[in-house]
Design a protein that fits this description.
With about 350 residues, this protein is an alpha/beta fold. About 25% of the residues lie in helices and about 30% in strands. The protein has 2 domains: about 5-255, ANL, N-terminal domain (Rossmann fold); about 260-355, ANL, C-terminal domain (GMP Synthetase, Chain A, domain 3, 2-Layer Sandwich), CATH 3.30.300. It is globular and about 65 Å long. Belongs to the ATP-dependent AMP-binding enzyme family.
């Protein structure tokens, strides 16, 4: 008799919004959410029906925050391995409570469901928003957010035991704000191809400046200085990223920025993410840097800020006072936009935002 695939094994402690579901229930509850649920519940329903199918793989769409969205095919068995690695790394236990506040259209939301089913978590879900904890008064052992959600949830974090934040870099200002909290906050590194995070760093720990990889993950660099990931439990082949890194040792690295976002301005190569890190010490509004065509320089460094009421001259004057900025790292132009293009959770879609000013 052929054994059932391992994704059929739903932990008996698994609860979704307080209700226990077995594997046999997933297709029905998924169909119900798709047909009768709210708009954000459709993604949850679609995923549950996909998980309940006999097909051993899932198709997952990338967010498109760093480029054109694409479809990635993932094995359910590898998603289970990722969930177990997360459970071990963050010391999650059967019966722990968790909150899903990310869209289930992307890998981060889907994996919260997988972790709950595999590890036996009591998972609640709320509508994905930029301030998700305002929609619930409950406390949770484990939550995943993007940086904007974390920023808007600071006043509620006394209800959260451990929180992982990913999808975009955490600013210096936000890192400083979480250092004093009792909540354990971890910044994570990962992508759809790695089935969410393969490394993390504890933001409340002064000594934790670098990402440390999870078990069974090996890292190296290619000839561009970009991270190469070997993680046989979650990916059959090596994953060559576009992320520039400094390798500290075989388990630890510092993320520097993306190779495909380097700006060549007058022969000087600028890494926007490194400059953003410096600027974030003084910026109170959402912002990012990009390169735009320039007749003299080839590309010029441009600062985009989400706020229409700032004084551009004053912004540039404040940046020139930053001692850690070189003259090449001071933007040549400031562009004010009323709103950035973003996902439902507030993750900035850089390429779409830049298109607004081209």
């Amino acid at each position: 008799m052929k054994a059932n695939p391992n994704w059929y094994n739903i932990h008996e402690a698994f609860r979704l919004n307080g209700i226990r579901y077995a594997f046999e229930d997933l297709g029905e509850i998924g169909y119900s959410l798709v047909k009768e649920g709210e708009d954000f519940e459709i993604g949850i329903g679609d995923f549950l029906m996909d998980w309940a199918s006999e097909k051993p793989t899932l198709e997952v769409q990338t967010s498109g925050s760093t480029g054109t969205p694409k479809t990635v095919v993932l094995k359910k068995a590898q998603m289970i391995n990722s969930a177990r690695a997360t459970g071990a790394h963050f010391e999650l236990s059967e019966g722990d409570s968790a909150l899903l506040c990310l869209p289930c259209t992307g890998i981060a939301g889907k994996m919260m469901l997988v972790r709950a089913m595999v590890l036996g978590l009591r998972l609640d879900y709320v509508r994905p928003s930029s301030d998700p904890l305002s929609d619930t008064s409950k406390g949770y052992d484990f939550v995943a957010m993007v940086p904007l959600q974390l920023q808007n949830s600071l006043k509620h974090l006394d209800r959260i035991k451990a929180l992982i934040v990913g999808g975009a870099p955490v600013s210096v200002m936000l890192r400083n704000q979480v250092k004093t909290l009792k909540t354990q906050v971890f910044e994570t590194y990962g992508m759809t191809e790695t089935i969410t995070h393969i490394a993390s760093k504890k933001l409340s720990d002064e000594s934790s400046r670098f990402f440390r990889v999870l078990p069974n993950v090996n890292i190296s660099q290619d000839d561009r200085g970009c991270l190469v990931i070997d993680a046989p439990n979650i990916a059959e082949d090596s994953i060559n990223t576009n992320d520039l890194v400094d390798l500290v040792d075989e388990n630890t690295f510092q993320w520097l920025g993306r190779a495909d976002s380097i700006i060549n301005s007058g022969g000087v190569k600028l890494v926007p993410e490194q400059i953003e890190e410096k600027i974030s010490e003084v910026m109170t509004h959402r912002f990012f840097l990009t390169g735009l065509p320039d007749e003299k320089l080839g590309q010029k460094l441009v600062l985009l800020i989400e706020n229409g009421n700032l004084d551009k001259t004053e912004v540039l004057e404040n940046l020139t006072k930053l001692k850690n900025l070189s003259k090449y790292e001071i933007p040549k132009e400031v562009v004010l936009l009323e709103n950035f293009a973003e996902t439902s959770t507030g993750k900035i879609l850089r390429a779409d935002t830049v298109q607004k000013i081209r």
